Amino acid sequence: MAKSSSNQVVAMQVDFGKSYVVKPRTMVIDKEDLVVQVESLVAFVALTTHGVDITSYMLAQELDGYFGMLYGPTYKELVKDF
After folding, report:
1. Is 73 part of any domain?
2. Residue 60: inside a domain, yes or no?
């Protein structure tokens, strides 16, 4: 009876002799030249202006704290560091 080919073990080569190398920065930009653009996630004023007032729905679901967190401060200098 012939043996099934699915029982054969195939050796994999996992070491190619090269390791992953992180390349250094290829571009130098001064931190002062970076501009951080801060946008609103939901423009409640614009929605109200166009006749869509979702404030009551937001308050009914107690999401005002969540949106207050989203509209919190943006630490622009920290963003520039990253």
Report:
1. yes
2. yes
Q: Classify residue 74: in a domain, yes or no.
A: yes
Query: Residue 31 contacts by C-beta under 8 Å, 6 or more apart in sequence?
Result: 80, 81
Query: Could you tell me the two tokens for 6?
Result: 């699915």
Helical H runs in 1-82?
44-49, 55-60, 64-70, 76-81
Reported as a single tens digit per residue, the pLDDT across 32-75 is: 888 888 877 777 888 889 998 888 888 899 988 888 887 777 78
Residue 21 lies in a domain: no
Whole-angstrom distance, CA of residue 74 vs CA of residue 72: 7
Provide the residue type at 41 as one letter: L
Number of domains the chain contains: 1
> Which residue range forms the structural domain that includes residue 67?
27-81
Report d(CA 60, CA 66) in Å as an integer: 13
